[in-house]
Amino acid sequence: MITITSKDNKIIKKFAKLKQKKYIDKTNMVLLEGQRLVEDARKRNAKFVAVFSLNNAFTDDSFDCPVYKLSSSVFKMLSSTENSQGIIATISFPKKNFALPTGDFLVLDRIADPGNLGTIIRTAVAFGFKDIYLYNCVDHRNSKVLRSTMGTIFDANIYDIDKENLNDLAKFNLLSAEMNGEDVSQIKRLDKHFGLVLGSEAFGVEKEIANYCYKKISLPMENDVESLNVAIAGGILMYLLKQK
After folding, report:
1. 97 CB burial (10 A radius; 0-12, 13-18, 19+)
2. pLDDT tens digits, one per residue of 168-206
3. Residue 108 pairs with which residues in a beta bridge?
4. Would the pTM count as exceeding 0.90?
5. Radius of gyration of the CA atoms of the chain, in A
6. Residue 134 to residues 156, 211, 227: CA-CA distances in angstroms?
7. Residues facing residue 31 across a β-bridge
C-alpha cells in the first residue's frame, strides 16, 4: 500500500478530475465511493484501476490494482460525500453501444435529477427491466447516480440513445406514462416485450417521443393529487405491469 499525503501528487490530481463529466467521458473511468458500492463492483468483475483508503480505514490490498493510503486532506480531493466510509475506487466504466432489448425495458426521457435516475435504475433491476435507454438524461455515470443505484447499476444494460434508436425501439410495444393515459390496471398483459417510457420530472414525456408509443397509461390517484415523483410513479407502474 502506497501512502500519499501531498495534494500536489500527480496521481491524485489525475483521478480528482473524474469528478467532472468531461473527464469521465474522456477516460471512461469513474470514482466509486463507499464499501458497498466498491464491493458490488468487485463481485461483478469490474476492471479496477486504483483503490484509495482514508488512512487505515481500508486495509485490503488484494485488489488487482494499486492501493493507496491517503491523508484526510488528500482523500477529500476525491470524495464527493460528507460522511465518507473511507474507501474510493476508480474503475473502467465505458458506455455500452446500442443494442435491442432482450426483455421488458425502460425508455427514460430527459430525467435530470441524479437521485431519481439512480432510484429508477435500482427499481428497474428489481422488477426485471434490465435494459434501460436514456434519451437526453443526466449521465448515469454521475457519482450520485452510482450511489443511488446501490450497486444495481452493474446488473443493468444502460444505453444513451438518439431518435434513430427510438425508431428501433418503437418496433416493440411502447407504453407512455402520462397523466391523461388509460388506467394501468385496465391494461392487458402483452404477448411480447414492451417498453415503459417515463418522462422528465418537470414536463413529462416529450410529445415527439410519445408519438412512438402505441398507448398512454396512467396511475389513478385520489384526493386531487395530480402527479407523483417520477421514480415513485415508475416503480409502481413497473410493478403493476409485471403482475399481468
Report:
1. exposed
2. 999 999 999 998 888 998 887 666 789 999 999 888 999
3. 134, 198
4. yes
5. 20
6. 12, 17, 22
7. 90
Q: Which grid coordinates are listed for 166?
A: 427510438
Within 8 A by CB and 6+ apart from 164, the residues are: none
The enclosing H or E element of 180 equals: strand 173-183
For cell 422528465, the residue is 200
Give which of 229, 220, 142, 153 is closest to 184, Cα–Cα. Answer: 220
Beta strand pairing call for 87-92 and 47-54: antiparallel
Hey, what's the cell of 145? 447516480
Residue 197 and residue 241: Cα distance in Å, rounded? 13
Contact 174, 212 (CB under 8 A): yes
Distance in angstroms (rounded) separating the CA atoms of residues 67 and 58: 10
The span from the CA of 208 to the CA of 50, in Å, is 43
| Predicted local confidence at residue 185, as pLDDT | 85
Q: Which residue has cell 470524495?
A: 79
Positive/negative CA dihedral, 11, 16, 22, 24: positive
